[in-house]
Design a protein that fits this description.
With 235 residues, the chain is mainly alpha-helical. It is 64% helix and 0% strand. The termini are far apart. The relative contact order is 0.12.
Amino acid sequence: MSKGKWLGAAAGWFFGGPIGAIIGYYIGKNVSIGRVDQNKAFEISLLVLSSAVIKADGKILNSELDYVKKFFIKTFGSQKSNQYFRIFNKLNKDDFSGKIRQICLQINSHINHSTRLEIIHFLFGVAFADNNIDNKEILIIKKIAGYLNINNYDFESIQSMFLSNNSSNTLERYFKILELPSSASDKEIKRAYRKMAIKYHPDKIQGVSDDIKKLAEEKFLLVKQAYEEIMKSRS
C-alpha cells in the first residue's frame, strides 16, 4: 500500500453509501479503477468534492484541474493517479451535486477533525488555483464544511489564509486566522495563539504523506505569522 495516502486504512471506512454507489456506477461504466480498497473509497470522495468546487462557478478551468492532478500525483504517485484521473474526467461531466451531503456525512463518520480541516484547506487551494475565488466557490466550500462539522470560526480562519497579503485589511485577516475580533486583549490573543498552534500543529496530522504535512506546516506558520504581526502592531 502506498505511503502517499492521506489516511491509512481509516478504521471503519466502508464501501456502502454514496461513495460505494459512485464506485459501482463507474465500474458499471467500464471505467477501470483497479482494485477497490478502503483508501480508494476515501480518495474518490476527494475527487467528488473537488469536482463540485471546480464546477461551482459554471466554469471548468485548466488551472483548477491541474491543481487537483498535481496534488494527487505528489500525494499518491503518478501510476495510481492516472486511474483517478479517468474517474475525475467523468466526474466533471456528470452531476453528483445531490450526493455531496451524504458523501460528507460518510467522511465525517470515519475521519478525525484535523483531517477534515485539511480537506477544507485543500478545497480552498483548488478554488484559488486561478488566483481568484468566486463567491459561488466559497458558498459550496462553506456548505461542505458545515456537512463536515467544521464550525464557522475554523472556516473563516482557513479562508483568511487565502486572502491576498496585499489586502488593505491585512491586520483584520490575521485576527480572522486566530479566530478573534480585532478588539481582543493581548491576553486573549496569546491564549488564542496557543490554541491555534496546537490545532494546526503538523504532529496532529497522522498517517499522511509529506505533501499533506507540508500543508499543515504552512498553516502552522501562518498562525505564527498572524500572532507576531498582531503583537507587532500593538508594540
